[in-house]
Amino acid sequence: MKLSSQSSYTNLRNLWSNARWTLALTWSTSRGLTTGAIGSYLIQSLVLLGFALSGRGIVNAVVNHLSHVTRDFYDLFFWIGIGLIVTIFDAVSRFSIRLFIQRLEDEIDLKITADILSHADRLELSYFENPRFQDTMERARQNPANKVSQFINSTLSAITNIIQGISLIGLLVLIDYLIVLLMLPIAIPYLFYQWRLSKTRYHLEYSRATKRRWTQYFLTLFTNHHSVPEVKILGLGTYFKQKFYALMCEFRDQDRKLYFHSFAVNLVFAVVSIAAAYAVFVRVAFRVVGGILTVGDAAIFGGAAIRLRASIENAIGAFTDALEQMLYVSNLIEFLNIKPQMNMNDGLTIPSGRGEIEVKKVTFTYPGSKEPALKDISFYIKPGETVALVGENGAGKTTLVKLIARLYDPDEGSIWFDGIDVKELSIVSLHSKISFVFQTFGRYEATVGENIAYGDLRQVMDHPEKIEQIARLARVDNMIQAMPQGYDTMLGRMFGEFTLSEGQWQQIALTRAFARDATLLILDEPTSNLDARSEYELFSRFQEIARGRTTILISHRFSTVSMADRILVLDKGQIVEQGSHQELIAQGRHYASLFRLHLRQMNHPMIR
Which of 132, 135, 212, 608 is 20 to 30 A (C-alpha) from 338? Predict the structure, then answer.
């Protein structure tokens, strides 16, 4: 799992490659909107020249009329008409730019968000457990559509200002070429400094990814209903606020320095360039007095020179902003370039659903860990068998079932499902045969019916009668009927006003697992939050629920474990015992020791 660093994205070659990627993305998103935006900017780029020419023509026509050079008003009305047309084009192009860019941003936002979600869905679980990947994903999620649209907007704005500048230079050179000789030496260092400032801002923001996630974490502690009670009881609010405030102050102080540097350089450029423009304007004024230039030349020179200065400043600002946005877009490209280690759809389809599992000499080590979580694990589960995994915390139980479900791949060894190596199976096909209740099960902000239907979206979602049948099978229908709107009750605190206890949420999660017609049922601590009555009601029908399915149970409750046909005992990543409950008790080894501890904890008479 290789993740890139920002250094590979800040050289000009990669920036050009990323710019082409962004332009291709924009063009493929909407050719019509892109064409409209480009056309509107091109019209806008010629507006200044039109204003300058019409202004010059109007002034000269008025002077000629007052000087009795001509007695008709043809030239005056002609240039006034040109000015009117240019003004209309100016207004229309401005409104058009706003319309096309807004629409384009919406379309890009839709496409990019869909691409991010689709790509995240293809990546393996191990990525999401990697802090570096979390930073990469955090950067990619920082409003990427806005960065793309800003890049397009800034690029077109830079081109517009460049065209405006060239057209104004062409006009001004005819009046006095000295303006160009003064402006260019001022503009070049300003361009390089603005680009350096843009890179500094980007690198600073890039380095903040982990700290940004910390600020979001602290905000979550204050706003999530799961964490708020403990934060209040333990009096942690002030401590967490101080840590949050310290990070935000660090960001503020860093940004303040950048703001000051940007202000100082912009101010210097503005003062020097304005002084240069007015120095040349004085020269032009004397040439008008000397009869070398016309009054119209003088009238447009002052305004055109100042607009040229503004066009140069705007072009440099837009150009460096486009490059800066490209640096941020590179974060999105970096995320999308992360290659899944497994292809979800490639591979064989499971021909039949028997639920036969064979694990052969499997070893697995988590990235960053020195000790393997599992070492040389081998066992066989026949179709329809119920097997329990028992062991202390950290023994490797949950890791093992995640490997069987191919949420990870083993470092060594192989896992076979229905006689086929899982690496040769399509992951989509494999997962369609597995129902998995995780220890940290999902609490979906949805109706009760939807929470159950998520177990098999295609087969159950649009069939209320199937949802109710599954609920009755899991014996949760009475609990659901007692809710305010029954199966239509919205669960959770984010969008609804009704939530469940931990035990009730777990019952819904178990019911969701039963909704899928899977050949393998994996239950990780399925009764950890259930009371004795709920646990009894569930497992009194367990044989009916699990009929025809291979079942793997992970539990610390021996009342649950004892129902298994066979028990595998794990210790420090290895299988140390296996057998039925009675056989393992009779052996008097690790399992029997755990069972005695359980009885002592329950104050059982046998241990007194």
Answer: 212
